[in-house]
Amino acid sequence: MADGPTIGFSEFAMPSTGVLVVFCDDSLKLGPATRRLLGAAAALVARAAAADNFKGRSGSTLDLVAPGNLKVARLVVIGCGKPADLKAKDFVKLGGAAMGRVPAAAAAATILAELPTKDMTAEQAAALALGVRLRGYAFDRYKTKRKEGEDEKPRVRKIEIGVADPARARAAWTAKGAVADGVVLARDLINEPANVLHPPEFARRAVALKRLRMAVDVLDVPAMRRLGMNALLGVGQGSAHDSRLVVMRWNGGKRDAAPIAFIGKGVCFDTGGISIKPATNMEDMKGDMAGAACVVGLMQALAARKAKVNAIGAIGLVENMPDGKAQRPGDIVTTMSGQTIEIINTDAEGRLVLADVLHYVNTKYKPRFMIDLATLTGAIMVALGQEYAGMFANDDKLADQLSKAGEASGERVWRMPLGPEYDKMIDSKFADMKNTGGRWGGSITAAQLLQRFVGKTPWAHLDIAGTALGSPQTETNRSWSAGWGVLLLDRLVEDFYER
Question: Does 152 have pLDDT greater than 60?
Answer without folding.
Answer: no
